[in-house]
Structure formats: C-alpha cells, structure tokens
Amino acid sequence: MKSNLKEIWKNRKQILEGITNSVIRDEFVEDVARVRRELCEQCPSKGDECVMPGTAPCCNECGCSLAFKTRSLSSECPLDKWKALMTEEQEDELEKL
Questions:
Q1: How many CB atoms lie within 10 A of CB 41?
Q2: Is the pLDDT of residue 2 over 50?
Q3: Which of 88, 61, 86, 70 is nearest to 31 (CA)?
Q4: Alpha carbon distance 95, 82 (integer Å)
Q5: What confidence category does residue 5 fall into, taking pLDDT thresholds of 50, 70 and 90?
Q6: Which of the four, 8, 30, 68, 96, has the lowest number of CB atoms within 10 Å?
Q7: Are residues 18 and 58 in contact, defined by beta-carbon separation less than 8 angstroms?
Q8: What is the pLDDT of residues 22-75, one digit of tens each?
Q9: Cβ of 14: how many Cβ atoms within 10 Å?
Q10: Which residues span the domain enclosing 57?
Q11: Residue 96: burial class (beta carbons within 10 Å; 0-12, 13-18, 19+)
C-alpha cells in the first residue's frame, strides 16, 4: 500500500463525506457510486490493503474503503479512472442546504 495515515488524515473531509453519504442515502450519489464501483471492480489495485481494518474492499493505491471513496463526490480515483464531480468547497455548500 502506497498510502499512510498522514495521507488519510489529509483526505479526512472526503472520507467523512463518503461515510455520511453511505449512511444518508441519496439516489444520485448511489448512482455515481455504482458506476465508480464497477470501474473499481475491474481495477488491479482493488484489494484488502485498507488503512482502516474491516473496511475492505479498498483501493490499494490510497488505502481508502471503496464503499466510502466511491460515495464521496469530491473524491477522485488516484489512477484517474474517475474524476471528482465537485470540489470540497462545493460539497460543503451543498451540505448547508
């Protein structure tokens, strides 16, 4: 795994966004996550090398749980297989609504 806890800490807002979106389900977010997961399923970097134990499957490039990362609209694939749909600032504004 190329990631470490320092990298995860840097991405904590995106991870929290993914966790929130996995608990409070939205049809649009679920559609985005479904498309992203399909790409991740075919990726050789999909695996069990998670920074947080028990959250597999994970991205072996960044160590993030795919269940959370694919639901974070401000996250992008570290291998450039899918892009962020909004910035972290836009996500913060959306949460205020």
A1: 10
A2: no
A3: 70
A4: 22
A5: low
A6: 96
A7: no
A8: 888 889 999 999 999 999 999 999 998 787 788 899 998 888 899 999 999 999
A9: 21
A10: 5-96
A11: exposed
